[in-house]
Amino acid sequence: MKRGDLTRRSLTRWPVAAIFVSGLLALTGCGEDIKPDPQEITSGTFCALDGMLLLDYPGPKAQIHYDQGPPDFFCDTMEMFAIYLEPEQKKRIVAIYTQDMGKADWTKPQGHWIDARTAFYVTGSRRAGSMGPTLGSFAREEDARAFVEQYGGQVLRFDQVTPESVVLDGGVLQDERM
Prior knowledge:
This protein is an alpha+beta fold and 178 residues long. Helices cover 28% and strands 19% of the residues. The chain folds into two domains: 1-34; 54-173, no CATH class.
């Protein structure tokens, strides 16, 4: 083989190798941004906080996915926020989902999972979740406002929900008999 042939062959392989390596690097970078899909609730899905079976209760459910291990499921949005807003939260969260109550049946919600960080929430409504007061979750602001018209409350965005608004006492702190 002549020296010129080797140079030509090297020059034609170099761009192919560069494209291949670039593609691998691009795929590696994409892997970090991929978030897991929401998982459907089954008859055995239980709440990470209290062990209650999710299908037994009304209102929106939620799930938090971490970078390691299985997701945590919650029987209502109050519990999801209580864990998310907890200062001791050490696990790296990669996805949070809740149900779109503009599409799901409040009494037996199934499916209709949405990114919890982009949802609209209704606090202070007359609708109850698994443990009493809960935050209704909606994909569309129009649906959240229609819910407020019917059941009362106030519309909030994800970053407007505070630890004080998701106290999990079930009303015990206001009950003078307790």
